[in-house]
Amino acid sequence: MVTVHDVAARSGVSIATVSRTLREPHRVSDDTRVRVLAAVDELGYRPNRAASSLRRGRTGVIALVVPDIENPYFASMTKGAQVMCRARGYGLVVVDTTERAEIEDEEVRALRSQTDGLIIASSRLSDERLTEIADAAPCVLVNRRLTGPGEAVPSVTIDEETGVEAAVAHLYDLGHRGLLYVGGPSRSWSQARRSAAIAEAAASRAGLHLVQVSDCVPTSEGGRAVAREALATGATAVIAYNDLVAAGLLAQWTELGVRVPDDLSLVGFDDTFVTGLVTPPLTSVGVDLRELGDAAVELLLDRIDRPDANAEGNDRTVVPRLVVRASTAAPGAR
Amino acid sequence: MVTVHDVAARSGVSIATVSRTLREPHRVSDDTRVRVLAAVDELGYRPNRAASSLRRGRTGVIALVVPDIENPYFASMTKGAQVMCRARGYGLVVVDTTERAEIEDEEVRALRSQTDGLIIASSRLSDERLTEIADAAPCVLVNRRLTGPGEAVPSVTIDEETGVEAAVAHLYDLGHRGLLYVGGPSRSWSQARRSAAIAEAAASRAGLHLVQVSDCVPTSEGGRAVAREALATGATAVIAYNDLVAAGLLAQWTELGVRVPDDLSLVGFDDTFVTGLVTPPLTSVGVDLRELGDAAVELLLDRIDRPDANAEGNDRTVVPRLVVRASTAAPGAR
DNA sequence: TCGATCGATGTAAACGTTATTACCCTAGTG
DNA sequence: CACTAGGGTAATAACGTTTACATCGATCGA
């Protein structure tokens, strides 16, 4: 292993100067700098991260905790986070909790002391636990906002109301009056918000009849499972908890001979790449998920690098767009 | 921050004993052990990873380098790797190279000195470069095997021949005699192997006519783009480079009024969750991708933890299964 | 009973980096 | 010319762990 000492010896300076050359280049004279950098290059020197972390009390690494990396939603988020981390010179460790709160708790506990900060996406933990964690380490929540008065845990959330409003408006304007919302797990924070937002959006529209079913398993299998039940409601338009559920509904309906959008319009959530995989391509409302990851990293790193700069600007809200594809049309269009 | 010193003070022993209690519990007496562990618990002590790494020359972290974490293929692999790492007490840092060789090179260079080992999946780097990397750090390749004689870079690969053979046999037995293979990027190692294996499997079957197109972009858009061209070949059965391409073909064909499997049979590769999303569900040949990640981690950690135990047992081959779903049937079945 | 052995614990020296302090040397100022 | 200011560099002390070695009883065999 090549260390500062080797570089120092080779370039005829002290180890202090080597370190300074790399950390604060402007503080050394021009010719020492080139000499040191040359030696660094020739020897292939790379500062030992462990040593650096130990001395500085900073690891240069942040952690992203997600429930399930196989879920395209979190995969995209991770991608965004990854790119931003690279740009800012930070490492990213991704942890998959397999949707289990106790694993999340355990991992978070382990990570908080060994990283510079945490991003926790769609957490399964209680408000109390999260507050406690945020007290102990820089922390950004995604898809979760703590409600307490004094709480100031930074978070990145989606403006569900706006997204839902756009979806409902779209369907209403097409002429739909019977609307079904196939909701996800009732314990989910996003589900609660979406459900409430849909109720509100529906209530404000004359003649619109809304039915909600909930606790659909948020996968395509879940969608398949409720496909018949959904038909039975007599709705002409369906909004699904997410794209996967929508895909499942679509697949099952197709097998049952129900045609989309001729017989039934369908809107998904999250606008993942799944929308382009199915036939017809799915109208969906969602944010750029990479941007979500991006934003979380940015928020966290700003907190870390510029400590107590501004206790304000804690939260970021990302506004979703409705992307209209081929799964929605006027009712009875055929 | 609570350190060994705090724990030592609290439990009335020296820091050495604290460290030993945690690393080699059998080497301390029973009552000291319980006393120390109690103190650890009460104080919430967690050994500082940076310090530990520095001293031991081991980080307890391995890296997984993938071209694209958004690709369900690598997402599943990552999941498998993640779970295995957790089980073995290692941390996992996932790096997405966004399919760019120069980023892969750069990241690998940075990671090899700061982790205990590397897993490089579907690498874009040259054989020479990979050999060089493997010389400098424990390394396992996935979906790549170095061919040189003395080369002994451990790898996990898929037995493409067996998988392809099963797919071709399935279609042939259904009665198909005109077969099209829609191949992926010609620079891809997997593509080369699949293409060769299909040619071989086809050659051994009387009356089977094989056409290959290649350089299809390995996404659903890529599949859509070649959908018409595929029809023009007159084949009655199509094998696609992967499930995404198959999904694209399927979507475009559906829009063109071509029905699967009535008019055309379709087989995908990799058996990702995409197979269940589309209509009809896709017949696909692939391995359990989590197992692939699993195996890579296991191979790597065995190398790290039991150094030079066995230079043999370097490679692991995973045998894919053909999962028959609804996208394949006898030709002219309708 | 005495030395050898062994088990349990303590002491202290690393690991490679960075930050603080001290130093030197040159240039500027009265 | 003496004195100071200040830029550039060197020496050195941490950071928290782990581990080789030393120490000290106690046990055991002769």
What is the fold-level CATH name, i.e. the topology of the largest domain in chain A? Answer: Rossmann fold
> Which quaternary structure do these chains form?
homodimer
Residue-averaged pLDDT of chain A: 93
**Poorly predicted sequence stretches spanning 5 or more consecutive residues of chain A:** none
Give the helices and strands of chain A as they follow along the chain.
HHHHEHEHEHEEHEHEHHEHEEHEE
Query: End-to-end span of chain A in angstroms?
Result: 72 Å
Strand content of chain A: 15-25%
CATH superfamily heading of the largest domain in chain A: Response regulator
Enumerate how many helices of chain A there are, as a single number: 13
Q: Give the class of chain A from helix and strand content and strand pairing.
A: alpha/beta
Account of the protein in words:
The structure is a homodimer of 334-residue chains. Chain A is α/β, with parallel strands linked by helices and 334 residues long. Chain A folds into 2 domains: 185 residues, Response regulator (Rossmann fold), CATH 3.40.50; 127 residues, Rossmann fold (3-Layer(aba) Sandwich). Helix content of chain A is 45%, strand content 16%. In chain A, strand 6, helix 9 and strand 7 form a beta-alpha-beta unit. In chain A, helix 8 packs across helix 9. Chains A and B meet through helix 4, helix 5, strand 2 and helix 12 of A and helix 4, helix 5, strand 2 and helix 12 of B. Chain A binds a DNA duplex (30 and 30 nucleotides) through helix 2 and helix 4.
